[in-house]
């Protein structure tokens, strides 16, 4: 009988031990399921991403938004490991940045496409632009090229016919003798007190409270516009990260498409299903 009691005690101790181990294991599994992802964005995009934070929380993913006010820092922060992903650039910008910085940043999903617009404080129509007027365009190589192409679309200048990125040196015809000045993209909207017109990126215009309907010219979106689709990006070594892919999936929904339309007053279009 005493032997039986001893055996019972041993069994009870063993069961208690394994129960505690199992509970600890479950706790560790639960903790390991909670992932934190740091995403770098530009300006007013936070209003698009905030609803996604709540959605991902239910999946055990904590999305931390880090805001930037320039186009130069987010990729550096990504490569240094300060960020896990970012969402501020288009394919053209990413490829150019990789080339200039020997980077290995890649896209893991499309977000939206936003036409550049031309704004003015003094003109109601782009045809009113006078000879010798001052014109501001973004200065980073990708947007300088794009801004110049917008001016060409509008019939103001002619450019060299080449596929590589264009600069102001590639203007071949400037009948109005426009004084085209590249500025940091974030400053283009603020320059409107000093220039006749400015080519402004959509997120910059949004932050500066410029109404899309007040633009005097809008970039035409064609099949050639695909390189200007904005993306979620990460480093090449993380391109297959399952958690990052869940972030992209949570973004690419009809609810997000509606939010993009709402936040940007209909001026920006969800790109993952866009028909070019």
From TrEMBL:
Note the topology in the membrane: Lipid-anchor
What GO cellular component is one of the record's annotations? membrane
**S-diacylglycerol cysteine-type lipidated residues:** 26
The record's annotation in PANTHER family points to: D-METHIONINE-BINDING LIPOPROTEIN METQ, LIPOPROTEIN
Main localization is: membrane
Top-level taxon of origin: Bacteria
**UniProt-annotated location(s):** Membrane
Q: What is the lineage of its organism?
A: Bacteria, Bacillati, Bacillota, Bacilli, Lactobacillales
Asked if the keyword Iron-sulfur belongs to this entry, the reply reads no
Q: Which family does it belong to?
A: Belongs to the nlpA lipoprotein family.
Spell out the protein name for this chain. Lipoprotein
**According to the UniProt entry, where is the signal peptide?**
1-22
Keyword check for Protease, yes or no. Answer: no
Keywords linked to the UniProt accession: Lipoprotein, Membrane, Palmitate, Signal
